[in-house]
Structures are given as C-alpha cells and as structure tokens.
Amino acid sequence: MASTTKGKALITGASTGIGAVYADRLARRGYDLVIVARNDKQLQELANRLKANTGRSIELLQADLTNASDLKRVESKLASDPEITLLVNNAGIYANAKLADHELKSIDDMVQLNIVAVTHLASIAAKAFSARRKGTIINIASVLALAPEISNATYAGTKAYVLALTQAMKVELADTGVRVQAVLPGATRTEIWERSGGDINALPAEMVMDAGEMVDAALAGLDQGEVVTIPALPDAGDWKRFEEARGALGPNLSRQHAATRFKQARPAA
Ligand SMILES: NC(=O)c1ccc[n+]([C@@H]2O[C@H](COP(=O)([O-])OP(=O)(O)OC[C@H]3O[C@@H](n4cnc5c(N)ncnc54)[C@H](OP(=O)(O)O)[C@@H]3O)[C@@H](O)[C@H]2O)c1
C-alpha cells in the first residue's frame, strides 16, 4: 500500500475503458482519485477494487457531462479542491454516422461531451493549477485528429479540436508550471466500439491495442515530457518531421497579398 500522495487526479469517463485504466495506474502511482462518469455502480466497483489494491482514497462524482448542471458540479469540484493536481479529460463518445445522416441531438451530445465539457474542465484546471504553479492536464484526443478521412466528420472534428486545444494550451501555459499532454490513441479495445454499434473485431488485430498497453505508453510519454503522445507510432521522428513541416508554413500563412497563383489578369478597362 502506498503511503504518500501526489495529490488527487480527477478522471472523467473513469467507469470503463481508458478512463478506468488511468484510474488504476494513477492510484498505483500514488494519486488519490476523483472518478467521474454516469454509471454509479461501475464507479463504486472500481473504487472498491482500487481502494483494496492501492489503499488510496477514491471519491465518486456521478455526472452526465452533457448535462449543464452536472458539468457545473464537476467544474466546482475542480475549482474548489486544492488537492487536485491532475486532470484526465477522457470522457468521450463516438457516433457512427456521416454528417448528412447524423441526428442533430446526437451531434449535440458529442460536441457537448467531446468539446464543451473538455474545454470547461481544461479552462478551470488551467486557472487553478496556474495559481498554484503546479499541475498536469491530460486531454484524450485520437489519431483521427490526424486522419479525419477514415472516420466521420463530427467525431474526427471533435478530436482535431482537442489536439489544437492542447497545442495552444501548451503555449498559453508556458512558464506557469502546468504541464499539458494530448494523447492520440489508435483503435483501442474498449466499450466505445459496442456503444456506437461498431465492431472492433472487424479491424485487423495488428491495428488494435489493449487499453492497458495504450495508457501505460501514454503515461511513459508524459514522463518523457511529450506534449503530444501517439502510443502506436514506432518512430517519434515521424511526428517531429510532421510538426516541422507545419511550422514551416507559419511565416506564409498570413501576408499582405494573395499568392501569385490566385492573381488573375485584371479585366481590361
Ligand atoms: N477506444 C478507442 O478506440 C479510442 C481511440 C481514440 C480515442 N478514444 C477516446 O478515448 C476516450 C475514452 O474512450 P474509451 O475508448 O475508453 O470508451 P468507453 O469505454 O466507452 O469509455 C467512455 C467513458 O466516458 C463515460 N461517458 C460517456 N458518456 C458520458 C457522459 N455523458 N457523461 C459522463 N461520462 C460519460 C463513460 O461512462 P458512463 O457511461 O458511466 O457515463 C465511460 O467511462 C474517449 O474520449 C474516446 O474518444 C478512444
């Protein structure tokens, strides 16, 4: 049993999948936990198991993060508990539909959970952690942020948002003592597939990672100081070159005049 604590980690979507593995690994690393999700029974079972295995203190916060008043309760906890030193912004849903076929209510729920709740909690953590000059914010994005063509427009769009949010937060939080990380899992064996009517077994086995291996790699990336961690990517140099190419666009993205190729001959007077 661990006797010291690193503070508390607040983990959204901790009842199953990637969030539940983060809960396990962070408790073993010496964090007390605040675990958030809708399914109280699953949260209670996880808390009982982790308390028995690690001796850490575990608080349950049952909340539907698509519901404004529930989200407010989680925001209040994050803002008011000075022992919270780590946020894992993990709760997310996938909907298996093209934009044109997507029910607007389902789009709203996905945007509310994958974007609005993530942003509110990141904002509150950024403020609280900056004031204490200490803390870590982990945002769970997806490799689909980089490969929207193989997903659907809304889900990929929400995950591209999470990646951009994190990259901009890194700049905004420089010199505050607050660390940020975006994690971009590939296909990971969790309930999200069944929940959205998908079948992970339809993918080639060599494309699918177990949630435990994914989270362990993401935490190793955090320990190595990565801002963006792609657990499956064999050569970190590929990401470095991608970022360098993006950076090279920088000086030319905003200029006084349009590029020559867009200049048409002026019509004769
Ligand atoms: N699995 C993959 O292949 C994969 C790949 C890339 C990225 N990701 C991302 O990884 C994150 C975790 O997903 P997962 O794969 O672990 O899926 P999962 O097993 O379905 O877990 C999702 C978690 O979010 C919670 N949740 C869902 N709706 C919620 C709501 N309205 N309010 C509060 N909590 C809610 C769920 O708990 P309750 O139902 O109890 O609320 C559950 O704990 C997501 O952001 C997902 O987009 C997953």
Description:
This protein has helices at residues 17-28, 40-54, 68-80, 104-132, 153-172, 192-195, 211-223, 236-249; strands spanning 8-12, 32-37, 58-62, 84-89, 135-140, 178-183, 188-189, 209-210, 228-229. The model has no long low-confidence stretch (mean pLDDT 96). The chain has one domain (8-262): Rossmann fold (3-Layer(aba) Sandwich). 45% of the residues lie in helices and 15% in strands. By secondary structure, the chain is of the alpha/beta class. The protein has eight helices and nine strands. It has a seven-stranded parallel beta sheet with strand order 3-2-1-4-5-6-9, with helices on both faces. It binds NADP nicotinamide-adenine-dinucleotide phosphate (NAP). NADP nicotinamide-adenine-dinucleotide phosphate is lined by residues 13-19, 37-39, 42, 63-66, 90-94, 113, 140, 142, 185, 187-188, 190-192, 195.
Gist of the model:
By secondary structure, this protein is α/β, with parallel strands linked by helices. It is built from eight helices and nine strands. It has a single domain (8-262), classed as 3-Layer(aba) Sandwich (Rossmann fold), CATH 3.40.50.720.
